[in-house]
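Please go through this protein, sequence plus structure tokens, and consider how the sequence yields the tokens. Keep your notes short.
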Amino acid sequence: MAKFTSQVAMLFIVVALVCAFVPVFSVDESKAKSLWDTCLVKISPHCALNIVAVVFGNATINDSCCPDLVQEGKVCHNTLIKYIADRPALIARETLYLKKRDNMWNHCVSISKTA
């Protein structure tokens, strides 16, 4: 139960961050809405949190989330992570985040090929 509670708390934090940064720093509101409508709807909230925790934290990807990530597609994955990493609070470590993003993508693609 504690694990579920921490996951719910993390979901609220991610949603709050996205809501806080997207409207303020968004150059094109329609692009943000398009990303949401076409990309994020393909990933379960649990896996979205896991992906964010891997790229922007020190978590390890749950292999069960790899099919969601691969289904989302490389363009969506790259664009969403880049969009988040471009925030002023994160830009200093953007190169690291993009490397972690690419490593996670390669791992999930290799898992999907063997499944």
